[in-house]
TrEMBL record, chain A:
Bilayer topology term: Multi-pass membrane protein
UniProt GO cellular component terms: plasma membrane
Record-given protein name: Branched-chain amino acid ABC transporter permease
Source organism phylogeny: Bacteria, Pseudomonadati, Pseudomonadota, Alphaproteobacteria, Rhodobacterales
UniProt-recorded Gene Ontology molecular function terms: transmembrane transporter activity
The species this protein was found in: Pararhodobacter aggregans
Amino acid sequence: MTAALLFEQFLNGLQFGLMLFLMSAGLTLVFGVMGLINLAHGSLFMIGAFFCAAAAGLTGNFWLGLAAGMAAAAAAGALIEVTVMRRLYTRDHLDQVLATFALILILSEGTKILFGPFPLYLDVPPLLTGTVDLGLTPYPLYRLALIVAGIGVALGLWLLIGRTRLGIRIRAGENDREMIAALGVNIRALYTVVFALGAALAGLAGALVGAVQSVQVGMGEPVLILAFVVIVIGGIGSIRGAMVGALLVGVIDTMGRFLLPQVFALFLDPSKASGAGAALASILVYLLMALILVIRPKGLFPVHA
Amino acid sequence: MPDKRREYALNAVLALGLLLVPLWAYWAGSPFTITVFTRIAIFALAAVGLNIALGLGGMVSFGHAVYFGVGGYVAGIAAQHAFNGETFLGIAGANQMLIIWPVAMIAAGLLAAVIGAFSLRTSGIFFIMITLAFAQMVYYFAISWPTYGGEDGLPIYVRNTFPGLNTMRPWNLFILCWCLLMLAIGAFALMRASRFGAALMAIRQNPDRVAAVGISPFGIKLAAFVISAMITGLAGALMADLSRFASPAAMAWTMSGELIVIIILGGTGRLFGPVAGAAVLVGFEVIFGGMTEHWRLWLGLVLLLTVLFARGGIVTLIAGRERLG
Amino acid sequence: MADPVLSLSHLSKSFGALKATDDVSLTLMPGEIHALIGPNGAGKSTLIGQISGRIAPDAGTITFKGRDITGLSVAQRARLGLGRSFQISSLIPEYSARRNVMLGLQARQGHSFRFLKPVMRDRRLRDEAEAILTKVGLAGRASVPSAELSHGERRLLEIAVALALEPACFLLDEPMAGMGAEGVGALVDFLRSLKQQAPILLIEHDMDAVFALADRLSVLVYGRIIASGSVEEIRNDPAVREAYLGDSE
């Protein structure tokens, strides 16, 4: 184990965390403003990846694919919001869970019908291939770009929420839904916009990640569940919490998977060490979640304190 | 009351239908049908467990499959150790159902006690997400731990035994499952009518009011959660015996979703709701699965429409809403 | 001089910069109705929250039947005999009036971990519940789900459930709220008879009812008790007139 390897894994964790942030931010925004738990968020991630891969494959241009992926996810999000989600805002959480679970089934099968049952492949754009020398270690340029993109989106969100009228409405909506309706804000439009924004973020994450992992049906759900862990840790409704939580989860998960088998190898024989290390690493973030819940039951940055 | 009589009639139809169709299949020599109905009975049993937590207690446990899976793994691990003579923490393996069932229930109950202790301090969306997360945790642990099959799960080469019955014969296994299901439904009915049930259903509707009369909601909810997990765990052990395989997929969050789907399709909190729901879910897969590989799309649509427009499920559609009196 | 049943001692609670409860001390003596009045925003809900156990005070103690209950949970205090009604009716909506009261009785008896005997067939529990409903005048509506009761009936049911606990004191949060003149009159008579059973800490806005019922009055303004005494003393207190009654007169 060298410093170079450690640094590389840390960067991987950062990259993973930032992509997770894109997912979590959308999820927490939707819950904060509309009080809606949306299991189909993972499907929007998947849709972004699929449309990006398909468009990039057709046109040979990754950037067109990226735009297509985001647009498709946002459009799907808007469509879902208008047809299904609208009827769920006043329902209890169980209904929301079930309806969005149904959407997962529909969207997954729909994707299979549209794109076939086999995974699609998405190539890293030529502009971003190769590695960059970061002093300690060479690092893939694309992954570095993902980190930059993630930070860029975070800044953009911060500006949006803090400095624009839409942001003011979002923050007001998080605090008191009935009030902003009384104040004349067009709630329906606001909700559609917020939902589509969250969907676009998920689609972006899916499209970006699609170049480093395979694009297949079901790719969204593991990320979705981790996003849940992130917002439980960070505090439901808080974008700042989503960022902190996502970085924590990303880094701890990645470093854990790398380090734990080696730590165990110090005092167990190699065959047992890798198994035990992998098993503990796989549950590390959940243990982290449990620990945080004990100290801060509402997460690190609860919005409705 | 006409509603109650209609519900009793529906319950009888479901109970007897679940028994008579496989019986006919037995005489007609169609073991496949018996196996399908055994799956219905087992899923119904798992859902009866969830119905205690969700239907009566209002606890949306999105991680109940973990108890289903744990039950299966108890059966699988016990069978593996009985097969190769090793011990689990000093305890020898077993392949007797009468031993495995209580152990599976206890294991599931203990896990539920731990998860419940954490999760039940929260409510609403937190509770849903946290139960999901803990279930995932156990799932990932199960597929990473190499000794017990990892991702591949554990085969059960020889089905566990029950005194006096050849459990390898489909009809025998079915009748065991059916009897356990009826017993569990009976226990559910007793619990719902009892003081415990009265407190639990009150907590679902207004926990602050229940605390204000002096009943601590946490204790009741935890007890209900643990009992609920035990019944689902028993179902998991039966499923492992049916498929002769303890599968990590039984713990996956998709299974948790399916259990909740069964409850909603059948009718949340209704006595025979789990039976109706399980029949629909398994029936969908068997009937539509034969027609198209995209049967899940149709299931999703039916589920979506049910949630939006037929919220009370099949039992409510046929027998009307429940009056708690 | 008898001991107070309920005693608040230097209770304080702040939410950030807002002092919702500012060094409040108060007693409830046996056999009395002690009314707590004050303008909106005075901090009555926060005070009720601390007495019932929903909110933890920053400082001060609450003593009930000679025992320090400051650290006890809502359910624990209820079990000790602290009965309350809610400002906004909080009942079990799908349960009938009878069943709501039976829940209170069941809690009183302390046996909720019973799994076998059907509770609705428990004759004694049903009869007791019906007796209590008769006391508050709801006997005829025993089988109606509480969600279908009228507003006034729900206020009465709240009190019935509190009665089922055989409490050592009543904490009634605006029981008259939303009731018509006739209902208020009947409730005033009822509460007057109730105080023999257990003293009442009555939070109310309806001044006529308060002046008719209260043995003692305390006035809460901006989290502080600015005056406490008999009805006559409070009516003539200049600080009170200015802060509260002055505006309406």
